[in-house]
Request: fold
Amino acid sequence: MGQQNALHRRVRPGAVTLKHVAERAGVAPITVSRAINTPSSVSASLRAQIEEAVAELGYVPNRVAGMLASAHSRIVPVIVPSLSNAVFIEVIQGVQTVLEAEGYQLLLGNTQYDLDRETELVSTLLGWSPAGIIVAGLRHAERTEALLRGCNRPVVEVMEAGRPIDMNVGLSHLKAGAMMGRHLIERGYRRIGFVGGRLEADYRAMQRYRGLDRALAEAGLARRPPFEHPDSSSPEVGGRELLAVLRQAPELDALFFANDDLAVGALLCAAREGIAVPKRVAIAGFNGFGIGALTSPALTTIVSPRRDIGEIAARKLLARVAGSPAGPARVDVGCRLAVREST
Amino acid sequence: MGQQNALHRRVRPGAVTLKHVAERAGVAPITVSRAINTPSSVSASLRAQIEEAVAELGYVPNRVAGMLASAHSRIVPVIVPSLSNAVFIEVIQGVQTVLEAEGYQLLLGNTQYDLDRETELVSTLLGWSPAGIIVAGLRHAERTEALLRGCNRPVVEVMEAGRPIDMNVGLSHLKAGAMMGRHLIERGYRRIGFVGGRLEADYRAMQRYRGLDRALAEAGLARRPPFEHPDSSSPEVGGRELLAVLRQAPELDALFFANDDLAVGALLCAAREGIAVPKRVAIAGFNGFGIGALTSPALTTIVSPRRDIGEIAARKLLARVAGSPAGPARVDVGCRLAVREST
DNA sequence: AACAATGATGGTTGCGCTACCATGGTCGGG
DNA sequence: CCCGACCATGGTAGCGCAACCATCATTGTT
Reply:
């Protein structure tokens, strides 16, 4: 701090600006601006002249200045609770595909499943005058919600279906959990447990548990609290949990894991330990990661259209920015049960 | 375009600015600026007054304006060739951990292994007046290199060790490939093949192949061109490739896969198809993803410190921004052979 | 032929903030 | 008790660009 170094200088030496290009091309700065932003509004001959000057000088437009002048940026922050979880990566990929095609930039925020961190991020990122904002989840701190509500920009809440601040793209995790619960019951399993990690933070996993619980209740079967572990989900943890749960509750004949990372780990661990799946215990996951289809036995899971969520969210956001119809405020992308060998 | 909608208005209605806070607090705007950016330079009483005004008005500083005024932003673009590959995700995570702790924001760029796309991205992202820039790889288009060289900001090239534009954090993929090659030879394998995807694009994988090739040459063993496939790497592709390669070249007794995604897929496929690993064919990977330790047999691989690469890169970049010593321009983080059951 | 409609170009202004310099007040040493 | 050092605060200017409106040339219309 305080220390005056080269990067904090007011004027970056040698910076080429619009003005320089304009002088070189013999036109007014505004014309250069137009040649860059709305080429169709400049005559072909001038445009060629300007493009030449741009190339010669190596001009790179200062987006920051443009943004300040127009109060409109091509930045879209995406706020997710975690990057370790591949689900969010795929959503981000979907968003990015759409954004980059339209010349927008993705600004990444990671809350680590902390609602206060989320407030902080939203506040900071709104300072970038973003075109809109994409946030994972429908539950936020009060202040976060106030910020999002008052920011006067398109806001898309993704991952779960529900009542959004502005727009929403996701699926019902409750339904997904119930769907898996009914499948397991239909298959003849009667003592079904749920294994998840940090359920107080990952409330979408908790919703899946609730769905399972509801299915169990409907069928008049024994309901159990979920098995939790403190670490973030990974195959390693899944394997460890499988052993721990079977030791603790050997009567269980089916386990619904909160996600495929855990479930695949459990499957591999079972193979290694000689635990017969699904004979001794059935194993199910959630997500539909490709690897689940390759294990032996292959994993029964619920496939969610993760990439689609990102793409749809980005498209709705951009539609609103452009003022074109964005379609319904709420999109339920649904999910699909993939029955394989592990149940 | 052309269409005038709410988001393109010059003045965003109801936007609270520094000035409003200053009026409310009864001080000059510059004092509010200082209270926010360098709180220690404002007396405690004024600071409290200002903080109150900020809270009352719900003021969110406009970073864009600040950036323009100071020609210095807290943005760091990270340009990677792919998000599908978990390696880059972990590097990004490492970068983000460090950046967020210092109040910096990560701007994500994805080249899809396309050098022209990279040039475009670098050009665009430099328009954000970033504090510095992190790019995967040492090979760039000429214009990209010119831009990076001339941008007068810290540039960190990550993933591979070599001669950087500015700074470099990575490892030698050639050495890594040779390390695995020597391991396989030492284990008694004599007919060793390499399986990768899109090697013309993923030249780091190609380097690993070259390392293997060198080890084979040193040992006087038969060298073969790599087996390639056109899709991006995934476990599914790895399984398919295992079968295809064994059909095409049944004499092979060991396969070095370009990465763990492929190798794990091959391992799972082998288990399913009853191909004995390592008896019929040994399988090795590269990366050291956790799941490789869980398969049966467990995967022999080379563990690269991916997260460290991101963290070190971000720290070096921030050190340079702050003007403090950033350490050596080149950091070779090395890698480690993890010998497990699959070889 | 006169005029409106359209399109291309330029001048001026200000986005919100911070660098820079100036000012005035407080304090300790001589 | 005065002077210079130092700190807290304020005034001014300008970062680079695009919105807005004005101007001028061109075209089509009656």
In short: The radius of gyration of chain A is 26 Å.
